[in-house]
Amino acid sequence: MWPAERDALLASGLAQPIDFDDGYEDDEGDFLFRTSLGSRGCTFLESTRGCRLHTTGLKPAVCSAVPREKREADEMYADRMLPCRSEWRAFP
Ligand code: SF4
């Protein structure tokens, strides 16, 4: 996610610094953050199903934009970019 998205989550109290990695620069030179991982995947994954940021208005844009299909989901997961992928039921 973008730094501004991380900042907004921290400011809202919905997240703590431990919920993110230290950030990294991607292949295109953008500085981004990834969410921390728990036993089931993304730290924002609800205990039953779904994302606890879904109705907050602060869900990272990338989580709403992609993946558009199973192949893309699998590629993102393989690249450690979709930490809730293994919890999905619709895309076995
Ligand atoms: S949609 Fe998935 S990866 Fe994105 S914040 Fe929510 S649980 Fe994490």
Average of pLDDT:
88
Q: In angstroms, what is the radius of gyration?
A: 13 Å
Tell me the total number of β-strands. 2
**Biggest β-sheet, characterized?**
2 strands, antiparallel
What compounds sit in this structure? iron/sulfur cluster
In total, the number of domains comes to 1
Shape: globular
Residues in helices, as a percent range = 25-40%
Output the structural class. mainly alpha
Give the terminus-to-terminus CA distance: 25 Å
Strand content: under 5%
Order of helices and strands: HEEHH
In DSSP terms (H or I, runs of 4 or more residues), the helix count works out at: 3
Kindly describe this structure.
The chain is mainly α. The protein has one domain (3-84). Helices cover 26% and strands 4% of the residues. The protein contains three helices and two strands, in the order αββαα. It has helices at residues 3-12, 61-65, 70-78, and strands spanning 24-25, 31-32. Strands 1-2 form a two-stranded antiparallel ribbon. The longest helix has 10 residues, at 3-12. The chain is globular. The model has no long low-confidence stretch (mean pLDDT 88). Iron/sulfur cluster (SF4) is lined by residues 35, 42, 44-45, 51, 53, 60, 63, 83-84.
